[in-house]
């Protein structure tokens, strides 16, 4: 495909997203229906779509258009990031039609005049809560979420040291660098697209995991021989990190209210060389008060990881947020029934919002006056990884 053809494809996909379809679904459908597109075309189109979604509001502003359309959003992205590429709108082949005089006149070269929610790309209803949560860091943090996330790996210490893993990856054309705050992390600096097909990945030497997620798993302080529960395991990224911290020894259980989300976990655990018990409600009922550590990686707004899931940013509503906050409190209360009296709960979210973060442990301690708060940390999204919050709770 030509560069102009890729722009047109991204516009078509974005039109469907604007009409309400999830981006991932539209991208898959488009790829199936467009056999002429090679893997490089598909990757490039996906990048354009996701770059736009991270900056959906400001792209519309930069385009100067009155109404959202795929064309307006892609134009806005180019105005912001690659104005020279607007010459690709020449109508040749599958390229977008040339810009009209009105379209050209409407373009805005800077975001200086835009309101903060437009300039920093977030929904209006979140502004008061973001201000309360981030205070003077609001613009810096929200700006960081307008760019792509880095690709980080977690080295599985049961299979290799970080040096050995870096060497194995280099032999396959994947260059990495160590990261200061996460000792098992490698940041991929070249060859990102080769990771999932690499031998190091297939042999369980490395897993794809954001560096801040790795810090959360380390904060659980799971040790060899312990009984550990990952109560919101999802795909099991943190479960596998916990297994590595436990040196593969002890009991590690993974639970999720939606068990289908854990579907791939047994195969991932096998690849990593660890054993994970997939828990159901019956097993949890038999293990009340039995766990040394319970990780509650709670369902949340995902605001701290919006770089990776920019579609979520425009779907979240005030009502969703209220439901999530209530659900988080219920899950924390359940965690309390599962942890040993001398054990520890680690409450974590990939949220930036105080209502899902600091407010939750505070409300938990009000409900359970015997419980105590331990270490608490907020990780802002940026070069170090996604945005996370975590807090230890002692029963
Ligand atoms: C933030 S995600 C977990 C991500 C996962 N820990 C990881 O590292 O990949 C939150 C998970 O909580 C699950 N969940 C939602 N309600 C729950 C509940 N009441 N009890 C347990 N898990 C729940 C969701 O299905 C979702 O998989």
Automatic annotation (TrEMBL):
InterPro entries documented for this protein: MeTrfase_RsmB-F_NOP2_cat (IPR049560), MeTrfase_RsmB-F_NOP2_dom (IPR001678), RCMT (IPR023267), RsmB-like_ferredoxin (IPR054728), RsmB/NOL1/NOP2-like_CS (IPR018314), SAM-dependent_MTases_sf (IPR029063)
Molecular function via GO: RNA binding; RNA methyltransferase activity
Family listed: Belongs to the class I-like SAM-binding methyltransferase superfamily. RsmB/NOP family.
Record keywords: Methyltransferase, RNA-binding, S-adenosyl-L-methionine, Transferase
Pfam families: Methyltr_RsmB-F, RsmF-B_ferredox
Residue numbers binding S-adenosyl-L-methionine: 256, 280, 297
Coiled coil: none
Domain SAM-dependent MTase RsmB/NOP-type: from-to ranges: 141-395
GO biological process per UniProt: RNA methylation
Active site per database record: 350
Name of the featured protein: RsmB/NOP family class I SAM-dependent RNA methyltransferase
UniProt key word RNA-binding: yes
Species annotation: Halovulum dunhuangense
């Amino acid at each position: 495909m030509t560069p102009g053809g890729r722009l047109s494809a991204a516009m078509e996909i974005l039109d469907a997203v604007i009409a309400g379809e999830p981006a991932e679904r539209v991208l898959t459908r488009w790829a199936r229906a467009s056999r002429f597109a090679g893997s490089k075309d598909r990757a490039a189109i996906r990048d354009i779509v996701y770059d736009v979604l991270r900056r959906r509001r400001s792209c519309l502003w930069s385009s100067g258009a009155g109404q959202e359309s795929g064309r307006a959003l892609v134009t806005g992205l180019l105005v912001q990031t690659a104005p020279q590429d607007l010459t690709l709108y020449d109508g040749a082949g599958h390229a977008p039609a040339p810009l009209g005089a009105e379209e050209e006149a409407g373009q805005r070269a800077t975001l200086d005049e835009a309101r903060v929610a437009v300039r920093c790309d977030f929904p209006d209803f979140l502004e008061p809560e973001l201000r309360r949560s981030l205070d003077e860091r609001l613009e810096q943090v929200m700006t960081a979420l307008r760019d792509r996330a880095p690709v980080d790996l977690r080295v599985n210490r049961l299979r290799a040291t970080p040096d050995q893993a870096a060497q194995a990856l280099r032999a396959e054309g994947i260059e990495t660098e160590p990261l200061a705050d996460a000792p098992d992390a490698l940041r991929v600096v070249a060859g990102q697209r080769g990771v999932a097909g690499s031998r190091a990945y297939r042999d369980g030497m490395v897993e794809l995991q954001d560096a801040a997620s790795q810090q959360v798993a380390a904060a659980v302080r799971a040790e060899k021989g312990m009984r550990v529960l990952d109560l919101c395991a999802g795909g099991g990224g943190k479960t596998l990190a916990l297994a590595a911290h436990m040196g593969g020894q002890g009991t590690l259980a993974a639970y999720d209210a939606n068990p289908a989300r854990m579907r791939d976990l047994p195969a991932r655990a096998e690849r990593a060389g660890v054993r994970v018990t997939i828990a159901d409600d019956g097993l949890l009922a038999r293990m009340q008060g039995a766990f040394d550590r319970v990780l509650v990686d709670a369902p949340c707004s995902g605001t701290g990881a919006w770089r990776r899931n920019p579609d979520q940013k425009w779907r979240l509503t005030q009502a969703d947020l209220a439901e999530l906050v209530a659900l988080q409190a219920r899950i924390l209360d359940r965690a309390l029934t599962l942890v040993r009296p001398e054990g520890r709960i680690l409450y974590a979210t990939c949220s930036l919002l105080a209502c899902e973060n600091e407010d939750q442990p505070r409300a938990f301690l009000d409900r359970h006056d015997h419980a105590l708060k331990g270490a608490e940390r907020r990780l802002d999204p940026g070069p170090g990884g996604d945005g996370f919050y975590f807090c230890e709770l002692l029963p």
